[in-house]
Amino acid sequence: MFATDLLPDHFRRRLGAVSGTFQLSTAHLSAAQLSTAVTR
Questions:
Q1: How far apart are alpha carbons 17 and 25 in whole angstroms?
Q2: How far is CA 17 from the centre of its chain?
Q3: CA distance 33 to 9
Q4: Alpha-carbon distance 29 to 23, whole Å?
Q5: pLDDT computed for residue 19 by the predictor
Q6: pLDDT for 24
Q7: pLDDT of residue 32
Q8: CA 32 to CA 40: how far, in whole Å?
Q9: Cα separation, 15 vs 27, whole angstroms
Q10: 4 with 12: CB under 8 angstroms?
């Protein structure tokens, strides 16, 4: 059982949205680093 199961539904959804955007930004960052390494 996770601690998130005790949280209200709207809080869990907001948490999921925040983690989703964080994963998107980190993927974007790694892609940018890859492209700069390739052009160098």
A1: 12
A2: 8
A3: 36
A4: 10
A5: 86
A6: 82
A7: 85
A8: 12
A9: 18
A10: yes
Burial (Cβ within 10 Å: 0-12, 13-18, ≥19) of residue 12 = middle
Three-state SS at 7: coil
Cα–Cα distances (Å) from 2 to 6, 7, 36, 39, in that order, read: 8, 10, 40, 44
| Residue 4 DSSP class | G
Backbone φ, ψ for residue 25 (5° rounding):
-65, -40
Query: Which value, to the nearest 10 degrees, does the dihedral of the CA atoms of residues 27, 33, 36, 38 take?
Result: -80
Q: Dump pLDDT digits (tens) for 1-40.
A: 566 567 788 888 888 888 888 888 888 888 888 888 877 6
